[in-house]
Design a protein that fits this description.
The complex is a heterodimer of chains A (about 290) and B (about 260). Chain A has helices spanning about 60-70, 90, 95-100, 115, 205-210, 225-235, 255-270; strands at about 5-10, 15-20, 35-45, 50-55, 80, 105-110, 135, 140-145, 150-155, 165-170, 175-180, 195, 240-245, 250. With about 290 residues, chain A is of the alpha/beta class. Chain A has one domain: 4-Layer Sandwich (Metallo-beta-lactamase, Chain A). Chain A has a seven-stranded mixed beta sheet with strand order 1-2-3-4-5-6-7, with helices on one face. In chain A, strands 8-9-10-11-13-14-12 form a seven-stranded mixed beta sheet, with helices on one face. The longest helix of chain A is centred in the last third of the chain and has 18 residues, at about 255-270. By secondary structure, chain B is of the alpha/beta class. Chain B has seven helices and 14 strands. In chain B, strand 10 and strand 11 form a beta hairpin. The mean pLDDT of chain B is about 95. Classes of the chains: A alpha/beta (about 290), B alpha/beta (about 260). Chains A and B meet through helix 2, helix 4 and helix 6 of A and helix 2, helix 3, helix 4, helix 6 and helix 7 of B.
Chain lengths: ~290, ~260
């Protein structure tokens, strides 16, 4: 198999990874964070159709196309769901992938998907609008392929900064969590990019600091009760065996997954206004 | 002139550009702007925000139309943050103006536009760009952020603030508000449209006591002696005393509504 592809479920689900060294220039990570992380796109497939979640940065375009070609027949009908339609990391290669594969649909919270990702060239390609855009509102059920028993559910992320979708794949029991559970960072570029040891520990203070120094600066002293309830609802609704974030290491194993949800819940409880004083957080204020 | 009634010169040599985006909410169709602003000094012009990709041709025509009479080159772009309605035009500007300098918080852009990574110049609060003739652009604290990397700016001598997603609100197309400044749109319920925008587009404001942030906002306006505000999504504000209180009240509304 091509470098940096993890087969999460045999011939059903793949993580397409590109490894980057953290140097303070990636907004998804705290400015002072060091180490290596995978940026993840995910392909799920059946013989008669496939879905791609996120498309990566333009920087990795050539490699991503190569990786995809190694696991997907170019004629297979492919639908693309950028989990964060407003961010370059999610939409950077939608256009290039559309030119190289049999893309039959886009999914977006907004109508006219190409309006949101056709921005890399001198001119627009208006023919992209011939590919239909399915609108994401509330919970959306999709079938993978034609007349299969494989369904995915696209939901609005219960904790987010900008418009973000999470996706649950019933068949493989994977939750694709976009910009949540992203704190799995490697010291070396040669480490495993999937965590399977149920005893692997991440401290509350580390995860809390990670959240507050990235896109969740506002959680300190927020009213987090409703956020916790909505996250719990997701955990209770789905039988999750793998947590697959849009960037960072993947967590595989029920106990490991449960632990990450518990840690998040504990942190949100600690940060609630009843326990933590709310205050103004300045740009680049590290905690 | 576009269907959105832009461009419009809101202050001498400061042009409001862009187009409207439809937003459907509870059976009504609102409009909101994905605005850009062109600031023209004696030696250089600076564009604040690159607009939504869908508006690029319109925006570019507006810029070319203005600058061909001014004989001043478009030399700089400032982007408040990396989200499509703000930074969606970056790639196309780089293709057309390969020497243009793009300023702001430049995290991520080296990954998004690797062929142009040298064009991106990092700014921090207080850094400035001299456009000539006394027109300066200065980076400012982004009080209401949509990303960790948001950055605001203002220009002197006008003391006009560019707050990106701060002061975000839609307007009533059906009442002819497209192309109006906030104080001209006298049937616009500023509290309501600010509250709706915050609830839908600024998720975090539903859970945070925004009085903390709006207090800081007022402090920033006082400290920088801001006289005018040019938001990306709202109508430009030329009378702060009249308009700002209503927008602030709207920004605080989702927290009171949802979190109880």
């Amino acid at each position: 198999m091509e470098d940096n592809i993890i087969e999460l479920s045999p011939n059903k689900a793949f993580s397409i990874q590109n490894i980057v060294k953290l140097d303070g220039r990636l907004s998804a990570y705290p400015q002072n964070e060091k180490g290596f992380v995978p940026l993840n796109c995910y392909l799920i497939k059946e013989d008669s159709g496939a879905f791609l979640f996120d498309t990566g940065y333009l920087f990795h375009q050539e490699k991503i196309l190569h990786q995809l070609k190694s696991i997907l027949d170019p004629d297979t009908p492919l639908s693309i769901i950028p989990l964060r339609i407003n961010e370059f990391m999610s939409v950077g290669n939608v256009k290039a992938i559309t030119y190289n594969f049999n893309v039959v649909a886009f999914y977006s919270p907004h109508p006219e998907g190409p309006d949101w990702f056709d921005f890399t060239d001198k001119e627009r390609d208006w023919s992209l609008k011939e590919i239909p855009t399915n609108i994401l509102r509330g919970t959306v059920d999709c079938m993978v392929g034609d007349n299969t028993d494989r369904n995915i559910q696209v939901i609005s992320a219960p904790l987010r900064l900008i418009n973000t979708s999470w996706i649950y794949d019933e068949k493989t029991k994977i939750l694709f969590s976009s910009d949540m559970f992203n704190y799995g960072i490697a010291e070396k570029s040669t480490e495993d990019w999937i965590i399977t040891n149920p005893e692997e520990e991440f401290s509350i203070s580390y995860i809390k600091s990670f959240l507050l120094n990235t896109r969740y600066w506002w959680l300190e002293g927020a009213k987090t009760r409703l956020l916790r309830d909505n996250i719990k609802k997701v955990y209770d609704s789905y039988d999750i065996e793998t947590l697959a974030p849009g960037y960072g290491k993947i967590f595989k194993g029920k106990k490991l997954v449960q632990k990450q949800f518990e840690l998040l819940d504990n942190i949100l409880d600690e940060l609630d206004i009843s326990k933590t004083k709310a205050h103004y957080v300045a740009r680049n204020q590290m905690r | 002139m576009s269907k959105s009634k832009l461009p419009r010169e809101i202050l001498k040599n400061v042009y409001w550009l862009g187009d409207c985006l439809e937003q459907r909410y509870q059976g009504k169709i609102y409009h909101s702007y994905n605005s850009s602003y062109l600031v023209i000094g004696e030696e250089a012009a600076l564009l604040v925000e690159t607009g939504h990709p869908k508006d690029f041709n319109e925006l570019h025509d507006q810029i070319v139309g203005i600058l061909e009479n001014k004989k001043v080159p478009l030399k700089y772009i400032f982007i408040t943050h990396q989200e499509t309605p703000h930074a969606g035009g970056v790639g196309r500007f780089l293709n057309i103006y390969p020497d243009i300098e793009i300023h702001g918080d430049v995290n991520d852009y080296h990954m998004a536009f690797p062929n142009y990574s040298a064009n991106f110049k990092a700014m921090e609060v207080g850094d400035s760009i001299d456009l000539g003739g006394g027109m300066n652009f200065i980076a400012a604290e982004p009080v209401v952020r949509d990303m960790r990397t948001s950055l605001w700016g203002y220009i002197t001598p006008y003391n006009l603030l560019f707050p990106g997603d701060g002061f975000a609100y839609s307007h009533y197309h059906w009442d002819g508000h497209c192309g109006m400044i906030a104080e001209e749109a006298d049937t616009l319920d500023l509290f309501d449209v600010s509250a709706v925008f915050a609830e839908l587009a600024l998720f975090w404001t539903n859970f945070v006591d925004m009085e903390i942030y709006t207090k800081k906002l007022k402090e920033l306006v006082d400290e920088l002696d801001i006289k005018y505000i040019a938001p990306t999504h709202g109508l430009p504000i030329l009378d702060i005393d009249k308009t700002m209180p209503k927008v602030i009240e709207g920004l605080q509304a989702p927290y009171h509504k949802l979190a109880g």
